[in-house]
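Work Package 3 committed the consortium to producing structural models of liganded targets before the mid-term review. Because experimental data for this complex are still outstanding, the team generated a predictive model from sequence and the ligand definition alone, so that downstream docking and mutagenesis planning could proceed in parallel. The input record is reproduced below exactly as it was submitted to the modelling pipeline, together with the SMILES string for adenosine-5'-triphosphate.
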Amino acid sequence: MIIADQISKHFDGVEAVTDVSFRVGEGETMVLLGTSGCGKTTTLKMLNRLIEATSGRIEIGGKNITEEKPEILRRSIGYVSQNNGLFPHYTVAENIAVVPRLLNWQSGHIQEHTARWLEQLKLPAHFTGKYPAELSGGQQQRVAIARALIANPPVLLLDEPFGALDPVTRTSVRKDFAELPALQQTTIVLVTHDVQEALQMGDHICLMDKGRVVQQGTPGDLLLRPVNEFVHAFIGQQVADISRIYERIKAQE
Ligand SMILES: Nc1ncnc2c1ncn2[C@@H]1O[C@H](COP(=O)(O)OP(=O)(O)OP(=O)(O)O)[C@@H](O)[C@H]1O
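The resulting structure, written out as tokens with the ligand in place, is given here.
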């Protein structure tokens, strides 16, 4: 369980995040949704203390996160950053082994788990010796997901993990990700600006604007019971655009 209680972050006078509160239950996926610059990444990074909150309280697994050293906290929180965050001078195997090494796993154990994760994420076994630059964007993203999940963290933070991919690759990486058996017990916070992704993947969605949560609830709440015109427009726009295009093409055929 993750509890964020009135968390705020101010950068030299810029109010990036103001009084954001939410709860993510065990095994649930919570989506932080909103336009560019609304404070999603800042909110996410406060959860693993890559950014320290200016005020408010965050609990993960019943513990106040400020009571733990950031580097220890991060061992139990998988994280996939916006640009995948792979180390360019590490091979795929070395990238995936970062957290297992910190946890002092034996090398045979690391190799066994790496092979299993490559298979689950549909990557060829011989990729272990390749460097990130030798992989496509979609393959790099799969490696970043394997790296975040190999030590079986109870919590996973994902910052636009599929954002840089073309629509076809995005759909396939997202589908393979969603079907991973290990995710059933993982508590996930996912950042996206894509309404369809939020509606598909979120048990719970926080729609943000200018650093604040405008509405939070289930996909059905936001889609069918928007609290104001902003929510209605943000959620409804993409759905309406697709319907309009569909109707136009149908009329032309
Ligand atoms: N280190 C920083 N110093 C100053 N301002 C910052 C810093 N990091 C973020 N901000 C500001 O805080 C606000 C929120 O940024 P944030 O990256 O959280 O938004 P976002 O919703 O994740 O956007 P995107 O989808 O473009 O990544 C922005 O106005 C941004 O310019």
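Reviewers should note the following from the model. The pocket of adenosine-5'-triphosphate is lined by residues 11, 14, 16, 34, 36-42, 193 (CB under 6 Å). These observations will guide the Year 2 experiments.
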